[in-house]
């Protein structure tokens, strides 16, 4: 995979892939919201805050992402273009998609919205992470914390954070349901499928020039 933040390698593909992934992520989030069957832990938290503050869920998503990004400072994490774009683009797209997507569908349609939303979320994750331009602020918080404390399990840290935001979101009025469970069960396998699929191939290393076969190197100082 290309080095994070290094745009010298395949910039057109990586930028296109980054913003396609972030846009798809916002759309997938809106589909799950409209399903009304449950959201992933962070979006339960975003929706709960939205209901308590009267702000749109997209605005709350941007605000929470920016606050989480501030927590990178003591962890000495450096955000990439993808990190900053993640904060802004997803929130704008989810609000735009919700404005276009009517509410009040029947249960079969809502199940379809949920399933498509979860699968699209997995593909979106593979796209923007595969571009190698920086993780999202929430993922970076987890990996940064573990990097500063090598003995900690990233799985344990992630589970602790997500259970905490899920509980807070539920208390604030966010939707927890079948979709929450389905997302938790499906997102791991989906990410495992899509991340390698969309990973940008590593930049080839230029081999060192070696003497031609049968030509010994000249001793130092010998005239040509």
Describe this structure in words.
This protein has 224 residues and is mainly alpha-helical. 68% of the residues lie in helices and 0% in strands. The chain contains 9 helices and no strands. The C terminus is likely disordered.
Topology (SSEs and partners):
Layout (H helix, E strand, L loop, with lengths): L10 H25 L5 H13 L3 H14 L1 H4 L5 H20 L6 H24 L6 H12 L5 H19 L5 H21 L26
Helix pairs in contact: 1-5, 1-6, 2-3, 2-8, 3-5, 3-7, 6-9, 7-8
Which labels suit this protein?
224 residues, 9 helices
Biggest sheet layout = none
State the separation between the terminal residues, measured CA to CA: 43 Å
**Radius of gyration over all CA atoms, rounded:** 22 Å
Low-confidence stretches: 215-224
Number of strands: 0
Mean pLDDT: 86
In sequence order, what are the helices and strands, one letter per element? HHHHHHHHH
The oligomeric status of these chains comes to single chain
The total count of helices amounts to 9
Helix share bin: 55-70%
Shape: globular
Structural class: mainly alpha
Q: What percentage of amino acids are in beta strands?
A: under 5%
């Amino acid at each position: 995979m290309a080095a994070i933040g290094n745009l010298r390698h395949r910039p057109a593909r990586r930028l296109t892939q980054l913003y396609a992934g972030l846009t798809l992520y916002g759309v997938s989030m809106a589909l799950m919201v409209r399903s009304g069957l449950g959201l992933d832990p962070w979006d339960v938290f975003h929706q709960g805050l939205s209901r308590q503050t009267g702000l749109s869920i997209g605005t709350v998503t941007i605000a929470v992402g920016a606050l989480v990004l501030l927590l990178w400072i003591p962890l000495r994490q450096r955000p990439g273009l993808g990190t900053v774009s993640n904060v802004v683009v997803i929130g704008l797209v989810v609000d735009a998609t919700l404005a276009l997507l009517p509410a009040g569908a029947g249960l079969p349609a809502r199940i379809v919205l949920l399933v498509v939303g979860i699968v699209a979320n997995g593909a979106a994750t593979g796209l923007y992470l595969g571009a190698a331009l920086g993780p999202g602020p929430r993922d970076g918080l987890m990996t940064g914390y573990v990097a500063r404390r090598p003995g900690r399990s990233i799985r344990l840290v992630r589970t602790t954070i997500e259970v905490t935001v899920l509980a807070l979101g539920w208390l604030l009025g966010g939707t927890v349901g079948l979709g929450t469970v389905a997302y938790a069960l499906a997102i791991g396998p989906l990410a495992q499928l899509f991340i390698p699929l969309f990973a940008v191939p590593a930049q080839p290393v230029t081999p060192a020039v070696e003497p031609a076969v049968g030509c010994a190197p000249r001793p130092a100082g010998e005239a040509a």
